[in-house]
Design brief:
Layout lengths: L8 E4 L6 E2 L18 E4 L33 E4 L2 H6 L3 E6 L2 E2 L4 E2 L6 H11 L7 E5 L3 H12 L4 E6 L7 E2 L7 E6 L5 H11 L5 E3 L6 H7 L1 H10 L5 E5 L4 H16 L8 E7 L4 H7 L10 H10 L18 H8 L2 E5 L1 H15 L5 H15 L8 E6 L4 H7 L4 E2 L4 E2 L6 H8 L10
């Protein structure tokens, strides 16, 4: 395998136009009060793929990586035959992130969240002496747990207790990974609040969510996989969203590919979807509003309890800020769609019957939205379409493994914990774990 070289890049503000050297963990522009996402500008204008043995780091030219981490797998793109035929589409390409050995997909957590976990952790300097804090509704937590455990990176995960059933693994985790939860009936936004408090404790550092350039650039590898396989930027991009960070990342990747010059100069339409009845992004977009519309938090929690795709449950997505989802949809000419639980279940069954692999509920929502768009004649049947299957192969993975292990929470917090409670309970969780 070729020697890994740290990526050369700088960070740019879309508000002021200023550029910055990444001194470690910049999440916001210094002195800037207006909410905005910073963006990465890579010194390599054209993407040169590395050896396939490097896994996700095949795309390292456009990842803010300071070091190589073992165990990653890149998204895999292939041209659909049976699902495409069923829908009457001539150029449907599926980008699959999950476990599907026959396709060359080996993500052990069966989710594209591995792309962001490896990217974020490779941006993190070794021996930084701090504990990374990540909030998650499910797949992100499982992916960060696997990556940090394998690479001995101290990690504090904050999740809703109702979602911990997704914390399965094929091997026991290193105790450098600790899980704390908000109580039954809470949701992802409550877990984010807990993580924000944890980051105020000395020695803990926020992963940053959508603000972390590495998270978005890691997710962007799905589009890089599609474009380098197809040889062109797709015309349409379908993905289910909770926060919309993946769609923002797809848009940013699209702009880099245009600057590359070898994949076309068009912007793919972002066809993103939410799981009904929880759809704050859909409501704001259809109202033509840059700001999310007001909603009752308790009602939102009840709606979240009803959706099957629990990972699509962010009440505070990066929608309104500069460089966020509203800007991405506006610039790309995209739209926000809806899928019910029933439509997603039917789409999941159809995908497994036609393509031969199981998919996660969020990916089923995206597939259901594609089906609806085809039925509504929103695209030419010859259009080049990318369907981002953000998770799949879990049934296959568990079947292939002899035993599963679950990560259990070390602490259960109140839904609105005080700072003293958080600080007290976090003391001692990482005793004996020296960051490497």
């Amino acid at each position: 395998m070729e020697v890994f070289k740290p990526t050369e890049y700088h960070i740019e503000s879309k508000i002021t136009g200023k550029t910055y050297r990444d001194t470690g963990w910049m999440l916001d522009e210094p002195g800037q009060e207006k909410p905005a996402l910073l963006q990465t500008v890579y010194h390599e204008k054209q993407l040169v793929l590395k050896e396939s043995e490097q896994g996700l780091f095949i795309f390292s030219d456009w990842l803010p990586a300071k070091r190589f981490l073992q165990g990653s797998s890149a998204p895999v793109t292939y041209k659909s035959e049976k699902l495409a035929s069923h829908l009457g589409l001539e150029n449907l390409f599926i980008t699959f992130s999950g476990y599907w050995p026959e396709k060359g997909a080996f993500m052990r957590t069966c989710s594209f969240k591995e792309t962001e976990a490896y990217s974020v952790c490779s941006r993190l300097e070794a021996a930084n002496g701090q504990v990374l804090v990540v909030a998650s509704a499910g797949n992100t937590a499982r992916s960060f747990a696997r990556v940090c455990s394998d690479n001995n990176i101290p990690l504090l995960l904050c999740m809703p207790e109702d979602n911990i059933g997704v914390m399965w693994f094929d091997e026991p985790l290193n105790d450098c990974v600790q899980l704390v939860v908000t109580p039954e009936g809470s949701d992802y936004s409550d877990a984010i609040h807990l993580s924000n408090l944890a980051c105020k404790v000395k020695g803990f550092i926020a992963e940053g969510g959508a603000k972390n350039i590495a998270r978005r650039d890691g997710m962007a590898t799905t589009v890089l996989s599609a474009a380098t396989t197809i040889g062109a930027i797709p015309e349409y991009y379908f993905q289910a969203i909770g926060s919309g960070t993946g769609a923002i990342a797809a848009w940013e990747a699209n702009l880099r590919l245009i600057r590359d010059g070898r994949f076309g100069n068009h912007k793919m339409k972002l066809m993103v979807s939410q799981n009904s009845p929880f759809h704050p992004i859909y409501d704001a977009w259809k109202a033509g509003s840059r700001a999310l519309l007001p909603f009752d938090d308790d009602m939102a929690r009840k709606q979240i309890e009803l959706i099957h795709a629990k990972v699509l449950s962010n009440r505070k997505p990066p929608y309104s800020l500069t460089g966020g989802l509203f800007d991405a949809l506006t610039d790309a000419g995209g739209d926000v769609l809806l899928a019910t639980n029933k439509e997603a279940e039917q789409a999941s069954q159809l995908f497994e019957e036609t393509e031969g692999i199981d998919i996660h509920p969020a990916a089923a929502v995206a597939t259901a939205s594609l089906i609806s768009a085809v039925n509504d004649k929103r695209m030419d049947k010859k259009a080049c379409i990318m369907l981002n299957i953000t998770g799949g192969g879990e049934k296959r993975f568990k079947h292939d493994k002899n035993k599963m292990y679950w990560l259990l929470p070390s602490e259960v917090f109140d839904i609105a914990p005080g700072m003293n409670e958080v600080e007290e309970k976090l003391k001692g969780l990482f005793d004996g774990n020296q960051p490497l």
